[in-house]
Structure formats: C-alpha cells, structure tokens
Amino acid sequence: MADAALGIAGLGFGVIVGLAVTAETHSELVAPGGTATFIGSITGLVGMYLALLMVLLVSRIPPVERVLGLGGLLRWHRWLSPWPLSLIALHAIFTTIGYAEAAKTGVGHEIGSLLNGYPGMVTATVALGLMMAAGIASIRAIRTRLRRESWWTLHLVMYLALALSFSHVIALGPSFVGHPLTQLVWSLVWLATAGTVLAFRFGLPAFRSLRHRLRVVEVRTEADGVVSVICEGRRLDLLPVSGGQFLCWRFLQKGIWWQAHPYSLSARPTPTHLRLTVKNRGDHSGGLAALKPGTRVAIEGPYGSFTSHAQRREHAVLIAGGIGVTAMRALLEDLPRTTRPLVILRVSRDEDAVLEEELAELTRKAGGKLHVIVGPRDKARLNAKRLREMVPMIAEHDVYVCGHDHFVRDMVALVKRLGVPADAIHYEAYSL
Ligand SMILES: Cc1cc2nc3c(=O)[nH]c(=O)nc-3n(C[C@H](O)[C@H](O)[C@H](O)COP(=O)(O)OP(=O)(O)OC[C@H]3O[C@@H](n4cnc5c(N)ncnc54)[C@H](O)[C@@H]3O)c2cc1C
After folding, report:
1. Is 23 strand, coil or helix?
2. Which own/partner contact pairs does 209-214 have at CB distance under 8 Å and 24+ positions apart?
C-alpha cells in the first residue's frame, strides 16, 4: 500500500515537472527575467502539488489510515510540509524578480505592479501570508508552546490559504493559461481532494456520531487520577474497530464540548458499549472525571494501525508504559490464539498499574505471561539485559509498544538494537 501510494505520488510529481518544463519556450527562457520567472513557475507548481499531497496525507482516507495509521500519516505530513511552503515562498520571490527584470524596474516597484495589475494577486498574497503563519506555528519549538486547540485552529487556515491561491494558479500559471484541458484536470484533482477531506474528516465522523448515538453511562475511578468512561450506543457492531485503535472523543458537556481528544479504547467494544480509560494530564483528560451520565458523545475514528492485523510472526511481545496499558489491554483481546503473548507493563508506582487484573486475566487466557515492572526509571530498568532475560528470542517476535512518546521512542530503539526488524515493530505513541 505504502509503495503503491509512493509510486502514484512519484508519477504525479513527474507529470507536474513535465508540465512546467514544456510550458516554457527557449526564447522565453533567454529573455530578460526568463530564468527567474521559470524558476518561479516550476517552484510554484511543484509547491502546490506537494501541498495537495500534504492535504491528502491528513484526509483520513480509511483504507490508507488503517494500513499506515494516523500517527504514521502525520509523521509523513510533518516531514513533507516544509517543502511546499518553501517552494511556494521561492515561487513568490523568483516570480517577482523575473517580472522586475523583464520590466527593467526595481523589485519594490514590481510588487506594486503585480498586486494592482494581475487578477487574483491580492488573494494569492493573503494566501501566502496565511500559509507562512500556519507553517511557522507548526515548527515544533513553537507548536509545543501553543495550546493544542490554538495551534489546531491556526493550522486550519492552511485550507483557506490553498482555496484562495487556487484561482491564481489557474489564471496565471504558464502551464494553465491557454490549456483548458490541463485547467480541467487540475481543477478536478483539487475538487476530488477537497471532497475527500470533507467526506472523511467531517462527513464520516458526523454520520458515525449520529448513527451510534453514544452517551456516557458510567464514569468509574480506576486509580488516583485515572477514570474509565463507559459509553452506550446503538449498533456498535457496525463500527469498524479493532483492539488497539483509538478515537477522537468530543464529550458534549459544558466546558469541554469544543475539544476533541484522542483516547484508545481500553476494551474491545461490544455491540452496545465502548470503554476508554484516561489519566489526568490536563484540562480535558482531567475533566472527564466530572462527566455526567447521559452526556452525548461525538466520535471521530476509529484510527490507528496498532492492531492484530499488523502481526507478522506467530508470537508477540507487548510492552506498555503507564497509561499505554489501555490500547494494549484492548489489543490483547484481539490477538490470534496462537500468539501466546509475553506482556510487559512498566509503571513508576504500584497505583499506576491500572487494569492490571484485567491484563493478567486476558494474558492467562491467551496462554501468555505477564511481567509488571514497578519503580522509578533509574532503578527498575527495562533495558536490553532485562528484556533478553524475559524474551531470549525477541528478534523472532512481533513487538508492540504503547505509551507516551519518550517511552515508545526508547523501547523501539531498544528492540531494534536487539535485532527485531522494523516491519515487526508496531507502536502507538500517545502524542500526535
Ligand atoms: C493515539 C493516542 C491515544 C491515546 N490514548 C490515551 C488513552 O487511552 N488514555 C489516556 O489517558 N491518554 C491517551 N492519550 C493521550 C491523551 O490524548 C492526552 O493525554 C490528552 O489529549 C491530553 O489533553 P489535556 O487537555 O488533558 O491536557 P493538555 O495539557 O492539553 O495536554 C497534555 C499533553 O497531551 C497532548 N495533547 C493535548 N491535546 C491533544 C490532542 N488533541 N491530540 C494529541 N495530543 C494532545 C499535549 O501535546 C500535551 O503533551 C492518547 C493520545 C494519542 C495520540
């Protein structure tokens, strides 16, 4: 799936570069400002194409998401995003220089002429400003300082920016002017992308929320600062969900209705009930303890490729850090009978080992073994020596890791060092 998607994206890239190159004649290229204008044109077109891929990566197309996982797609999206933004900025710079050279005027003067004399230039300039603002806000050092909701709202302006720049590309791009067929194909591709985003990011969640009509029926305290929320709904057997997946939950209660947060299912769903188990880490997760029975719940998802479908080998090792036990607990219910899982739960204090009894019972039923490692990280270490003692043949197992991002990063690096190949390592980090 990933290879096929890369192949199609590569083909599209080739077509776009071909379009930009064939739109240029030799005489245009050698004319004053020709080279700069050509660079401006190719960077603009390739930048917009990469922006289209960036949008598709986060459009939540279910079959793609199921294989690559939302976390994986977001990593690709983040890896790709500096490229379209830089190319579009270079497009603005080189095109202005090229036009200024052609008109034998200064760049400052040319900016005024471009804004006043060309259709769609003002909206395109606004779009460029919005894109840069969204791009800067997404730089990790800045993003992590912003409130998640503020960053997300700012990030949404990227869609507005792309919509605003669309007419500019069609009206002025050398590959489009006088080429109605190219205009039509480009418009259809963007329309299909917009339709995909609307259908899968907004339509499908709205449909599922209405169809399943989830309501909170119970909030159960599991430990200090950890609650399980049990929701009742209709026809949950129609929700295509596997153990290990997560949903984005919006509890329609005063004070928190405007936030949707990702939480894994902490048990395999039944046709009537879903359960999530949440540790208090801030205003949303902390607020769930005060949920009132009857509160309506809107859902987005299920998402994630951290499921039994990812399993490649017969046996598996499951490693959960702290509250990462939630996804692991649900995954355990879904593993094939032959897996005989070795389950490791790593927690700092005894009271953090939530759902331990359920985990022990499920592991026993699956013919596996549970190790609970309790203690501060520097004393109760989960290192290569300890892991080898517990699973001498770890390189021949699938390894599932779940928990907060630093735990997942450390464990993935560790099991790689122990010889587990990348395609047998599956992880869900509790941060997107
Ligand atoms: C795939 C996935 C599954 C998860 N499953 C569970 C679970 O089963 N149980 C559990 O207790 N926690 C789970 N989490 C973590 C949980 O989403 C965060 O603890 C929660 O969103 C924090 O929000 P807050 O407002 O309480 O705290 P804040 O103070 O807003 O944030 C605390 C931390 O959570 C991160 N965070 C905040 N909002 C979001 C968001 N919308 N998306 C992603 N990260 C966010 C912040 O970057 C910060 O690092 C999961 C996270 C992910 C990504």
Report:
1. coil
2. 209/297, 209/298, 209/299, 211/235, 211/238, 212/236, 212/238, 212/239, 212/299, 213/296, 214/274, 214/296, 214/297, 214/298, 214/299
As a whole number of angstroms, the distance between CA 58 and CA 64 comes to 10
pLDDT in tens, 229-284: 999 999 999 999 999 999 999 999 988 898 999 999 999 999 999 999 999 999 99
Q: Which whole-number Å values give the CA distances from 46 to 6, 13, 74, 169, in the listed order? A: 16, 7, 21, 12
Indicate the SS3 state at residue 205.
helix
Ligand 1, atom 24: closest residue by C-alpha? 282
Q: Are 399 and 425 a contacting pair, CB within 8 Å?
A: yes
Q: How far apart are CA 304 and CA 308, in angstroms?
A: 11
Least confident piece of the model among 87-96, 181-190, 300-309: 181-190
Enumerate the β-bridge partners of residue 300: 248
Query: Buried b vs exposed e over 235-268: b needs ≥16 C-beta within 10 Å?
Result: ebeebebbbbbbbbbbbebeebeebbbbbbbbbb
Q: How confident is the model at residue 364 (pLDDT cuts 50, 70, 90)?
A: very high
Look at residue 252 and give its three-state secondary structure. Answer: coil
Distance 35 CA to ligand 1 centre (A): 49
430 lines ligand 1 (CB under 6 A): yes
Protein residue closest via CA to atom 28 of ligand 1: 282
What sign does the CA torsion over 236, 237, 240, 244 have? positive
